[in-house]
Design goal:
single chain; alpha/beta; four-stranded mixed beta sheet; 7 helices; 13 strands
Length: about 220
């Protein structure tokens, strides 16, 4: 059974709550292969490697070490990328420009591979948005333009990463009239496994312009 973890960002590494969840979900039997799926596949290899190394170190600081690790980007052929993701115990969908990442997932044939994956899929920021049935990309969240499209469909949860309760834009409130959006503050996460949803950190639910704190 797949485990999906949606995150925003961890500016100072994993706190105790996040660490406990990762330790529990990524037990020792699931620490063989780790695939870091970039957002920009073909132009920023050095940046991809830098973020890859950063998050591996964050995991290692909490005692979670993987035997094999690799970056999935344009240095792999589509076939190699598909094989790398399909055989990973943990797949990390990185942050970056959300529509750009989704176009690369399509170009490299990773959409179906990720949807069929029975391991652990972790999205960060753009990766979390793309995991949704409905991907909602806002200018407020740093996108160059607003766009809404059919995402991977791993979860039926649309998120707004880097959410700040004190600075909620009219754009997001207007979108909440049509879509239910979960505001993920940094250091928060939503875990979905076996149809059970688990919240960690400060998370809000936006619906019909109402903002509800659902976890803190």
């Amino acid at each position: 059974m797949s485990t999906y973890i949606l995150t925003s960002m961890f500016p100072n590494g994993f706190d105790d709550k996040a660490s406990e969840i990762f330790q529990r979900k990524i037990d020792k039997s699931k620490r063989n292969k780790f695939a870091f799926v970039a957002s920009e596949f073909e132009k920023t290899y050095e940046k991809n490697d830098s973020y890859f190394t950063f998050f591996l170190n964050v995991f290692e600081e909490k005692g979670i070490c993987f035997k094999e690790t690799y970056v999935v980007d344009g240095r792999m052929s589509p076939e190699q990328a598909q094989d790398a993701v399909a055989n990973a115990d943990v797949v990390w969908l990185s942050g970056g420009d959300t529509p750009t990442q989704f176009r690369y997932l399509q170009k490299y044939g990773l959409e179906t591979v990720i949807k069929r994956h029975k391991g652990i899929i972790i999205g960060m920021s753009a990766g979390s948005i793309n995991m949704a049935k409905t991907a909602v990309c806002t200018v407020s969240c740093g996108h160059t333009r607003q766009s809404v499209y059919q995402g991977l469909g791993c979860v039926d949860i649309s998120v707004e990463p880097h959410f700040d309760r004190n600075h909620v834009s009219e754009e997001v409130l207007d979108l909440s009239n049509k879509y239910t959006i979960y505001g993920l503050c940094d250091d928060s996460m939503i875990t979905v496994a076996d149809n059970v949803i688990e919240f960690c950190g400060e998370i809000y639910k936006l619906s019909h312009r109402c903002i509800e704190l659902i976890h803190e």
